[in-house]
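Feature request, filed as a ticket because there's no other form

It would be nice if the structure record came with a short human-readable summary line next to the tokens. Right now we just get the raw output. Example of a typical job, pasted below so the devs can see what we mean:
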Amino acid sequence: MNLAVLASSMLSDIHNYPNFTMAPALPDDVLHLLCEHLAEQEQFDTLFNCACSSRTLGVPALTHMYRAHHKAPVRGGEEDEGFATNLLMVQKWSILWRSIIASSLDATLFPYCRYIRTLDFRDLENLLEDDNFKSKISKQFFTGPLETFYKADTFRNSKGRKYERMNIKAIVEAIGEVVTQQAHMLQMISGQLTSPALIRWIPHLPRLQALEPWDGSALEEALVPEYIRQHCPSFNSLMIYTWIGQDRDQKFSQFISAMRPNSLRNVSTFCDVGAAAETFLALNAHSSTLKELRICISDDSISHISLLAGCTALEVLRIEDTQGHIVLEETQNDVYLETIEWLRKCENLHSLSLSRFLSAATLVTPLLLEHKIRLRSLEINSYVLKDSREFHQALSHQRDSLEKLSLKGDTDGMFRDDVDIIVDSLKQLKHMTVLKLDLPEMFREEHLIQIIAHLGKLKELSISALELNDRVLEHVGNLGGLRLVTLAGISKFTDDGLFGFVSRLGPGNKSIQVMIDMADPDTMLREEQVAVLREFLAEKVGGTLEYIPLRDPNVPEFEGDSD
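Raw output as currently delivered:
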């Protein structure tokens, strides 16, 4: 029996038998593989119990538990079901960070910080800012070896009385100073990073692959990219949330150009960071390695988008027009045609998202018809449907590959023929697992039934319609793998219809999340009926239900209006 099979077999035993005890004579590589599987499945409680069972198992269990610590549910105090529950989660959250920090000072039995691969200072900041942490936990947190990390500023109020406020920025930077010197396995750092801190930390991080600074200004000092190039041979990913300052395009391009040619694999921005002509040209120096590009553009930079023409190795592309004003084919047709030519050369492209990009449908149509391109995921959320017949027809050309589709647009002026075209194309996408159609007041029940009946592999479904009733529910309930469903539109589901829907669910619908939006106040269920339905859904498949009325039936529609 090979190691993977043995580890998988043991993993099954652990899940099936809570009192399962580990055989002491197992090879170390089997134990590591077993703990790796547990970490991949986010079985943190099981890993903790393994770590407590013996010193032999403690090392692999703790290693993989801390390698995956950034996936732990205690991070961010995610559970919020009342004060007591939230306080307990924040306590666990603080213990996680305290153990990482203390281990960097050799104050723990095991060197937890040396196991971690991801260091998210945003999460640490969120912990320090949490009200429960400030009022109940902070004094205990900053004790013993962590006492020196407490930083505070002193102020006086209007009456002259002194008070303290934690200096969270100073605390995080002081902690980062110590942890980064010991966490040599680190592959990714994120948070409110600064240039001086990065210059000090980077030489200690030979395995660093990714940076996620909140503000791109952290990259402006010339020593930052120089040190990355010298000390981090595996660096390949950059994610920026914002960038405040002057000459951002020039500074962004200088950072990219300072990297080793063809080393960047992933570049992402989450707002307009000033990327324009210089940045786009600089990215071409990574044309053979750049696989994922998520970029935000504006009215000032959209005319330069075709300068990305050398980046043809892309597999994932997201372009968001932050202003959404320009129809490219009408204002700069040459750029529009050059952009189409660039996208048609991206033969490995499998995920494409164009957000608020008014030319999205016409740009994508030639790609859908391109024989060598096989999209698996497509998102377009700003287009005029009545002008997009060719786009809707072209969708069916990706029937053998397309698995995820999200469409949102203006449905005004649609005729019956236009609706029939999009319905016929959607019916042919047999491999679809995720379908999101935010196309209000377009589909009727017969259209949705036709689409759903042909897409038996759906796992996520979000649809809007003029009106939704029990007939639609019946077909949704037949989707054996559905895990997430949002039904938006004026819904007139009956008690019998909803219970019938739940009755059809089976093992493949385990933990399904159901959201019914805009329930018709004239036909909506009573609170006690919804409560019974929620209980039935939880018992049947461990599912949850959100049931939202179109408006509060107890509030008059015109309340507050003056005669």
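Something like this underneath would help us a lot:
Residues 1-24, 80-84, 557-563 have pLDDT under 50 and may be disordered.
The first strand starts at residue 118 and ends at 120.
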